Amino acid sequence: MAEHDTNAPPLFEIGDLLPAPSGGPAFMDLKHPDYAYMFGFLQADGHLAQGTGHKGRLTVEINVRDIAVLHEFRRLTPYNSSITERVRATNFSAEHHSATWTLCDREARATINGLGLPYGRKSRKITPPRVEFSRRDYLRGVIDADGSVGHTGQGLPFISLTTASAAVGAYLCRYAKAVTGAARQIGRNARDGIYNVVYTKEAAVQLAGHLYYPGCLSLARKQTAASALASWERPADMPVRTPGRRWTPREDRVLLVHDDAESAAAELGRSEASCSVRLWRLRTGKVRCPKDDAPVGP
Predict the structure, then answer these.
(1) Per-block average pLDDT, block size 10, for the chain (298 residues)?
(2) How much is the CA Rg of the chain, to the nearest whole Å?
(3) Which of 98, 63, 60, 64 lies closest to 82 in space, CA to CA?
(4) For the whole model, what pTM was predicted?
(5) Secondary structure (DSSP) of the chain
(6) How far is CA 286 from CA 43, 264, 268, in A?
């Protein structure tokens, strides 16, 4: 059964969406799993261009090996659209073979734009939908477009998302914590300002199994990779790492007052090494110092 967010206000009424000719769900009704997936994929990998007057188009260009998903998008869209292929030189390949789905209809573009796919550059602007939507299908679409599923070089299962959107990255963290119990905090990569959210081991197995359920719309290769994760079992000699103890503003204040890792460690009940690293991070600005009015006592 599809899962929904019920608290967010809609941008417009679902009943105002255009009905599909087949009598099925309305076009881009995000409560429907396939449309939720499609919208997540479009937000991550689509481009909505606005031309002069009423002209414009929505395009999605992907490797030709994944062309099947574009045919699904065309099937789900009750407007004229096309799929083309081309071979060109890129920075990564002399003969990159890609497929592009193109949708020009103004009414369809208005619907997709109204749901939260901006015109032009959008990587940092996108957010989860503000209408009711099937959450795991939406996130699977985002991960299919901008994420990875598989095994690391050491054979550990993983599922990850690379995104420039703080809202989408944070939403995945909240959702995955509810599903797996694994907590993540996002932070932009210092080199390119991108968020990288990664889950490994049991958390990856649980999350992949939840998102890539049997019969769901997805990239076939990632569905296969997600299914392969289910057979992973933690080796008997691999210890389970307990969650780290997070530093509080009070502890930071105590550490700064002592200005000495050894003496602060005894008061805080932490290791001297932990206090030494934290004190260095506070002094160098790697983490923010607590406000001057932060209490030192309990």
Answers:
(1) 37 36 81 98 96 90 97 98 94 90 97 96 91 98 98 95 95 96 83 90 97 98 97 86 78 91 88 89 86 46
(2) 23
(3) 60
(4) 0.76
(5) ---B--SSPPSS-GGGSPBPTTSSSBTT-TTSHHHHHHHHHHHHHEEEEE-STT-EEEEEEEEGGGHHHHHHHHHH-SS-EEEEEEEE--SS-SSEEEEEEEE--HHHHHHHHHHT--BS--TTT----SS--BHHHHHHHHHHHHEEEEE-TTS-EEEEEEES-HHHHHHHHHHHHHHH-------B-TTT--EEEEEEHHHHHHHHHHHS-TT----HHHHHHHHHHTT----TTSPPPPPPPPP-HHHHHHHHHHT-HHHHHHHHT--HHHHHHHHHHHHHTSSPPPPTT--S--
(6) 32, 19, 21
> Position of tokens 């503003």?
249
Q: Two tokens at 16? A: 């105002």
